[in-house]
Structure formats: C-alpha cells, structure tokens
C-alpha cells in the first residue's frame, strides 16, 4: 500500500474510533493555528493539457522530443507506466511507447503560476511560495470568514473553476503536517490532520517520510534499530545527534508532529545562476561539459552562501549565430551540492547538439527555498559529499570564488 494511502486510512480509523468512544473531534476554535499547503497536480503536464484539451486522459510526458533528453514532469496516466521526472526520455519511451512527448514551455508555466499565487494572496496576507507550483498559506484566525476548512475548499474550487487546473490541499496545525497531508490523496486531494492525530499517524511511517532523511541517514538509524518515525521519537536526543547532528532535536519534535515554523510572507529569490561567454566557440561536448561543471560549482557555492536550496536546474545555450535555447529539469527534492546540480545539468547538455558552435553556457537553479525554513537534515545523503563541498566553500570564502575551478579527471 502506498504510504499516503496508508496515512489516509489511519486518519479515518482514528476519527471512527473517537466517534465510537463518544469523543468529540477537536473543533477549530480549540486550535487557532491552521496552515494550508497547496500543491498543483502534475503542473507542467496539466498546463499542456489545458492548452491542448485533446490530450486529456492520455499519457503526457513533458521534457522535449530528443531521445537524449530527460523528463521534466508527466501526467498521472504516464506515471502509471513508471515514468517520473529526471528519467531519460529513451527510458520513458521504453516504458510508455504510446506516450505523448511535449517540450517545456517555461513562460507559460510562469504565467499560470502567477495566477495561482494571486488566488492565494487574495485569500490570506500570509503566503509563502515554495516553488512555481506550491505554497504555504496561513489560514489562522479566519473563523469569521467560515473557517479554515471552508476557505481551503474554496481555494481548491477557485483553482479548478477559474484556471481549469487541479490542486491537492493539506490542512494542518503546522507546515510539516500540512505538506505531508497534501501528498496523501493526489490528485485533487483534500486532507486535514488534527493535532491529536499527528503522533499516532506518524509513528508507523518509515523515517524517510521526514523530508531530508535519505538513504545514508536511514542506514545509520537502522543500525540502531530505528526504522519508524515513532521509534525515532522515542530515541534520546544525544543518540540522534551522532547521526543527525545539530538538527536532531528539531527532527525529534517533527517526529511527534510539532513544528513551530511560521509562514513567512516574503518574496524569496526566484533563481540563482551563472553564465559564461567564451573567447572562442566550443564545438565539442567535452569542453562544454567541463564548463557546465565549473558553472555548477559556482552556482552551488552561491546557493549555499545565501542559504538556499532549489528544485529546478536550467541550462542556457547560446550558439555561434546567437540563437539561444534553454532546457530545464526538476529534482524530486531540494538540491544545493555542486555534484547534484551537475548531475541534472549534464543530462540536459546531452540533449543538445553543440557542433554548430557554442558561444555561451549558463546554469540556473530555481524553485528556491531556505534550509532553515524546511524540516530537513540538510541537502545530501552522502557525508563525504557534504564535507567536500564545505571544504570548497571555506576556500572560496577566504580566497575568492575563482580560487577553485571544478573540473573532470581525464
């Protein structure tokens, strides 16, 4: 059973048990804080279907037509065949040979995102965008307007009626639970988690459901017999600190459903990027790859210096005739390490014919978020990767950005 389905089942069982016991489900007025997390369903693919209605119900795969490209996102019909973001297009074609492959249209997605965010800001003065297609909205203190439930349903309805798009909504007393809830019944889901339900719902889930606990941390926790969130919550902070570092206490609180982070109404930077124009045009892929790696190192350092992570990597290429193209792909988790950025950028580069001559390359990371605003351990699972990047950061901070140039051993 999918984890989200299992959580939803437990929500129903908890409430049915309370009803049988004669317990009253907590009313909104007893819990003054309500946070809504809205996550658009298969956003890029949904916008493409909106513009081409004949594609509705078909396996739509967004990411380009080249066999060497990668999937940016896909419709739920395509996901049923195992297709997912960042997958090479040739693999997507193998899994879903009858899929409809469409190139990205970033400007169109940005246009629709603006309309979505406008609905949020017309609903509440406290809106915290996380990326182009998701945001936290604080619905606290809106009882006179009908309460959080009614308002959240109204937001979902407006998105569907006014924009003809589908959104999934999570409603909970804090950010962590709201984001968890929005993923429970996709697509077009609506899930509310009450405070008294949180600990019991979280307890049987694997520790990786706490965002940011990856395979490395999971492996070390398992060595201590900690497989579930409930077991993590019962472990002494001192023991967790050996694995989770300074975030141990905060993550332990998340494990019982506690998260005090406010919804921050600020316009975070939309992207961080770096581009370079060459003295001579590059016509070989190896030279372009070296430059892209160096650009990723510069972008990664700037992200970490500004305490950002991001989800979408964009590669910009300007050819000798000044024709410019961009290619983008999104990660399923925030990234900021140089190697993570390069992994996606390199896949994008592989989709481009550089033989006509490349005069400029650029790498940008967008969909930014600040790590202190997310309930995570950091960004990477590999401690060696973390240590290597931090060592580079220290050198750049002391001697300047140009002191180190990323390269590939040949």
Could you tell me how far the N terminus lies from the C terminus, measured between alpha carbons in angstroms? 46 Å
Helix content: 40-55%
Strand content: 15-25%
Main beta-sheet strand count, sense and barrel state: 5 strands, mixed
CATH homologous superfamily (4th level) name of the domain at 271-403: DNA polymerase, Y-family, little finger domain
pLDDT average, as an integer? 84
CATH class of the domain at 271-403: Alpha Beta
The structural class is: alpha+beta
SSE arrangement, N to C: HEHEEHHEHEEHEHEHHHHHEHEEHEH
How are the strands of the largest sheet arranged? Answer: 5-6-1-7-8
Principal-axes geometry comes out as globular
Number of strands: 12
**Rg from alpha-carbon coordinates:** 22 Å
The CATH level-2 architecture of the domain at 271-403 is identified as 2-Layer Sandwich
Report the uncertain regions: 22-31, 372-381
Number of helices: 15
What CATH calls the topology of the domain at 271-403 is: Dna Ligase, domain 1
Q: What's the quick description here?
A:
With 410 residues, the protein is α+β, with helices and mostly antiparallel strands. The protein is globular and about 65 Å long. It contains 15 helices and twelve strands.
């Amino acid at each position: 059973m999918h984890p989200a389905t299992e959580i939803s089942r437990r929500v129903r069982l908890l409430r049915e048990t309370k009803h049988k016991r004669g317990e009253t489900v907590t009313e909104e007025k007893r819990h003054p804080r309500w946070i809504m997390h809205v996550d658009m369903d298969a956003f890029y693919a949904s916008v493409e279907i909106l513009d081409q209605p004949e594609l509705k119900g078909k396996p739509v795969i967004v990411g380009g037509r080249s066999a060497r490209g990668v999937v940016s996102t896909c419709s739920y019909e395509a996901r049923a065949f195992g297709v997912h973001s960042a997958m090479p297009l040739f693999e997507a074609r193998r899994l879903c040979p009858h899929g409809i492959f469409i190139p990205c249209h970033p400007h169109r997605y940005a246009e629709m995102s603006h309309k979505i965010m406008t609905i949020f800001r017309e609903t509440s003065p406290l809106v915290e965008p996380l990326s182009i297609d998701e945001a936290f909205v604080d619905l606290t203190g809106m009882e006179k307007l009908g309460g959080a439930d009614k308002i959240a349903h109204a937001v979902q309805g407006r998105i569907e009626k006014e924009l003809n798009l589908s959104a999934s909504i999570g409603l909970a007393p804090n950010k962590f639970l709201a984001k968890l809830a929005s993923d429970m019944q996709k697509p077009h889901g609506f899930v509310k988690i009450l405070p008294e339900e949180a600990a019991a719902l979280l307890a049987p889930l694997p520790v990786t459901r706490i965002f940011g606990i990856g395979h490395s941390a999971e492996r070390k926790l398992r060595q201590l017999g900690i497989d579930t969130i409930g077991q993590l919550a019962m472990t002494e902070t001192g023991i967790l600190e050996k694995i989770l570092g300074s975030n141990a206490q905060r993550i332990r609180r998340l494990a019982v459903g506690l998260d005090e982070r406010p919804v921050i109404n600020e316009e975070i930077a939309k992207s961080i990027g770096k581009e370079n124009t060459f003295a001579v045009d590059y016509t070989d892929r190896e030279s372009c790859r070296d430059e892209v790696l160096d650009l990723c190192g510069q972008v990664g350092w700037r992200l970490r210096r500004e305490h950002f992570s991001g989800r979408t990597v964009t590669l910009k290429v300007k050819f000798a005739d000044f024709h410019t193209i961009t290619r983008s792909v999104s990660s399923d988790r925030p990234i900021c390490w140089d190697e993570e950025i390069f992994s996606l950028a390199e896949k994008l580069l592989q989709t481009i014919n550089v033989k006509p001559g490349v005069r400029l390359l650029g790498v940008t990371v967008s969909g930014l978020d600040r790590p202190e605003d997310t309930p995570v351990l950091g960004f990477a699972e590999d401690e060696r990767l973390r240590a290597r990047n931090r060592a580079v950061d220290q050198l750049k901070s002391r001697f300047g950005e140009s002191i180190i140039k990323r390269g590939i051993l040949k």
